[in-house]
Structure formats: C-alpha cells, structure tokens
Amino acid sequence: MSKSKLLPPTFSVARYIINIxxxxxxxxxxxxxxxxxxxxxxxxxxxxxxxxxxLAIVAAITVVGLxxxxxxxxxxxxxxxxxxxxxxxxxxxxxxxALAGAASVVNEVVGVSSSHFSYTHNFAILxxxxxxxxxxxVIALLLLQIFVPFYxxxxxxxxxxxxxxxxxxxxxxxQKWTMLFRLVLSSILLYHLALLSDVDAVIExxxxxxxxxxxxxxxxxxxxxxxxxxxxxxxxxxxxxQKAVEQLESPSVESKQPSNETLDTLEQEINTSVxxxxxxxxxxxxxxxxxxxxxxxxxxxDGKSRCAISDNAHIVELNDYEILEISPDMSKxxxxxxxxxxxxxxxxxx
Length: 350
Known about the structure:
Number of strands: 3
Distance between the termini: 119 Å
C-alpha cells in the first residue's frame, strides 16, 4: 500500500482524536466554570476520600465548605426573632455543658471543689468553651445534611397545597449533585465521629496512666507519648476486633465467619481514624490541665496568709481550719502538688 493512501486515514483519525480532546477540554472548562467555590471544595474532598486515606484533610475541607455554604442561612435565621431564640438556646446549652465540664476538670486538677477556685474555673471555661462550641456546631452542621433530603421531600409533598419553603443554599448549578456529595461526605464523617465516641474513656485512662504521668512535662518526647497512646489504641483495637468477631460469628452459618481481610480492614480503619485523633486529644487534655494548674498556683492562690506556708508554696484557704497548699513539683502529673493541710496560725497553733 502506498504512502499516499495511508496519510488521509491517519490524518482523519488524528483530527477525530483532536476534536474529541477539544470537546472534552471545553466541557471540563464549562463544568468547572459553573461550579462555585463551595462545590469545588466538595469535589476536591470527594476525590481525596476516594483516592487518599487523609480523612483529617477531607474532614477539614468538608467543614470549611459547609461553613461557607450555610453561613448565609445562619445569617438569615439570626435576623429573625424566632431564629435568634433558637440559636441563643442552642449555644446556651453548649455553654452549660462547657461550664460543668470545666468545673469537673478543675476539681480533677486541684483535688477539691471548684467553688474555691472561681477564677481558675473561669479560665478553664475559656479554654474549653471554644472547643465545645466548634465541636457541637460541626456535628449539628453535619446532622443537618442528613435531614436536608427529608426536608426537600416534605416540601415536595406540600407543594400541591401551595406551601413553599425557603432555599437552604444559594447554589445555581448542580444542586442535586451537590446535595448528594454533601450527604455522602457528612455521613462518612459522622460515621467516623461515632467510631471516636468511645475514645474519651481511653483518653481519661491515659491521663491517669503511670507511663504517661512518669514523663516529665518539660522533657516529654514525642516517641514516649506516642508509645503510651499507641498501647491504648492497641487495647481499643482488640476490643473492636472482639466485637466484630462476635457480631460476624455464627455457629450454623459458615459463610459468616470473619476473614482475615475483614479484621485487617477494621484494623486499618482504626489506625487511620483513631490514632491521630487520640494523640491530638490526649495532648490537648494534658496541656489544658497543665495550664489550669499553673493558673491556680500563680494567680488564684495566695503567696502570703495567716496560716503557715511551706517554702515556695501558695495556698488557698478552704475554711477556718483547712488550707490547700500548692507547690511546684515536676514529678506530679501537671507540674504542681496539691495537698490539703491543717491551718497553723496564732489562733490555731499546732
């Protein structure tokens, strides 16, 4: 076959491929041009979720997208009287939980009632209130995505009666696909939050763990802390695997026997979603308690009193007969020693 007969079909195929590439390129440009900033965030988070194990990055991107998308809705609700009442009640409940949690932490640190440490209690509230507010708000925002389809379904049923609701978002293109992506991302994040719901018990055990408390707060090394936390994560993994085996096992049905692949998948899921969160929350809990102890010693407690005080110690008078003496002690969990003593004064000599 001559060269002149080969060239026309070759050029036709090349021209056809180029035309397809141009159409695909133009379609992609048109598609991305219609996407808003929020929709691009959802798409990027979904791609990361499919091709990466960085769940923390996916969660951060999804939360940023949800906040950016629903902030106008929050503003509209706030400018109505009923909306203000609901929002104020919601955050008043959060503040109450933060108030009670801060009192519990102060009691844990100082060893006596937090009523004797009013300023330290207020300081603990300032430390915990932002975390409580952010966490509860994010969870509420994620739960909202679960109820959005039901809201739209109810509006569809009420539409023949002339009842129309208000738009939750201001998106102009691909609203249904965006709702689907929000629902998938929110469901996955809520699922992993549910997996982390029992991490609090492990963290509390870590705070009283002799291995962790034996580490000096100023000389703590990342490897030491990671070793203690990983040990606790291993214990949590064992419990989860035992529960999975109990749920999957069936004496009469052989096909329900758990495979190694199932346990490996469970272990990988726990390692990726629990380990980092556990370390972060354990460090946060430890550091906040150290700050509370330091605040109680430096600002709340008195350096001079009618009661006898040890060298380099500060005290808080509990009543006419008892004092709480606070002294620096780096061997203690939070860097200070809290001890209740009898008040030795001219009125009450030893």
